[in-house]
Amino acid sequence: MDKDVTASDGEVQKEDSLDVLQSTQTVIKEALDKLGYPEEVYELLKEPVRMLTVRIPVRMDDGKVKVFTGYRAQHNDAVGPTKGGVRFHPDVTMDEVKALSIWMSLKAGIVDLPYGGGKGGIVCEPRKMSFRELEALSRGYVRAISQVVGPNKDIPAPDVFTNSQIMAWMLDEYSRIREFDSPGFITGKPLVLGGSHGRESATAKGVTIVIEEAAKRKGIKLEGARVIIQGFGNAGSYLAKFMHDAGAKIVAISDVYGALYDKDGLDIDYLLDRRDSFGTVTNLFKDRLTNKEMLELDCDILVPAAIQNQITSENAHNIKAEIVVEAANGPTTLEATKILTERGILLVPDVLASVGGVTVSYFEWVQNNQGYYWSEQEVQEKLREVIVKAFNNVYNTAHSRKVDMRLAAYMVGVRKMAEAARFRGWV
Ligand SMILES: NC(=O)c1ccc[n+]([C@@H]2O[C@H](COP(=O)([O-])OP(=O)(O)OC[C@H]3O[C@@H](n4cnc5c(N)ncnc54)[C@H](O)[C@@H]3O)[C@@H](O)[C@H]2O)c1
């Protein structure tokens, strides 16, 4: 069975998140070694500098109090304040939050933002909670972490199952506690509360730009290119739309229920129209493939945009794509990365491919700080500039240092943080 993000088997999920932390640490170690940093730098960067666990009591609609567990990890603040999303999910674990905070540091380094990485999570089942309960939980979380967050300390954002409404409640709670309006405390806000144009589709826009750059390197024209996208949620659905608009042929898409395939290209507008708010649509069709079958179909570009551990040593030999772009976090194992690279497939790793979200979050924070707001076009132009530069930097590092794209991305991502820590006299 696919390991679902909604899997109820807590043990399996815990093992997965430990794997994610361990494999992240493995690549960080390799990157620091390649860059010639001593062991103490790795000792500092292998774990967050600060990890807070909080208990949040919430009076539920039935009158009883339920106490939720939440986390906030701050990986490293040598470069600047930490930044990263808060996820609401029943399977959130401390190790997962730690690993995700490290990834945020790497992403910030790759796009050269003045941040370190942070991440938060609350163990809860938001799909079974009322609006009122979600508001109370969001406000309770901010009260519990208010001492360690702030516009110049640690800046939260949306993540899995959190959205602009939740960011608005969190902003309001923080502003009440501090007794002044501080829109730069959180990003991913509604536009009327200081949100940025282009934030919602930023991740998919970033992935689209990365695909354009990767396609150029492989001599593939996007017009008519055959694309497979796993996952039809926020990332996958916007991406399908952008790629479709760019003239690519989306031959397959999938969600948790299965995959749809048409070698002549799917009707993306129709599927977007029928998709529900959880990113599912394939359950409306009888003729479905499994996710596993879909990943091995013939195509030019494959984009895993759903969950982790999808391309492993078991199926990496059967992937037909020339380019694999990881829109999801951790969809390819380290073993599979090696296999794909040896086969000449251009793999764009998650820490590079999905930087669009944090980049536009940064733009939002900058606009909040200066109190001057940009047009959609300005946001898009600045995003393209940042992502093209980051892609070139990683691609060139991979070639000049003769390493795979994942290790190259980690080398680029970790360098600024390590240097900043050194200049500060920490290591
Ligand atoms: N949305 C963002 O801004 C953003 C930013 C960075 C990284 N990501 C990563 O992209 C991935 C998708 O995020 P999202 O925001 O689109 O999530 P989402 O919850 O909106 O959508 C997830 C999609 O994956 C599908 N899915 C769930 N379990 C599956 C399974 N076992 N097999 C196949 N499909 C499955 C769901 O049906 C849905 O279509 C995640 O790994 C996330 O961490 C997202």
From TrEMBL:
The active site is at K119 (proton donor). GO terms for biological process: L-glutamate catabolic process. NAD(+) binds at T203, N234. Residues 196-425 form the Glutamate/phenylalanine/leucine/valine/L-tryptophan dehydrogenase C-terminal domain. GO terms for molecular function: glutamate dehydrogenase (NAD+) activity; nucleotide binding. Pfam families: ELFV_dehydrog, ELFV_dehydrog_N. Keywords: NAD, Nucleotide-binding, Oxidoreductase. Substrate binds at K83, K107, S361. The record marks D159 as: Important for catalysis. Signal peptide: none annotated. The keyword ATP-binding does not apply. InterPro entries: Aminoacid_DH-like_N_sf (IPR046346), Glu/Leu/Phe/Val/Trp_DH (IPR006095), Glu/Leu/Phe/Val/Trp_DH_C (IPR006096), Glu/Leu/Phe/Val/Trp_DH_dimer (IPR006097), Glu_DH (IPR014362), NAD(P)-bd_dom_sf (IPR036291), NAD_bind_Glu_DH (IPR033922). It comes from the Bacteria. Belongs to the Glu/Leu/Phe/Val dehydrogenases family. This is Glutamate dehydrogenase. It comes from Novibacillus thermophilus.
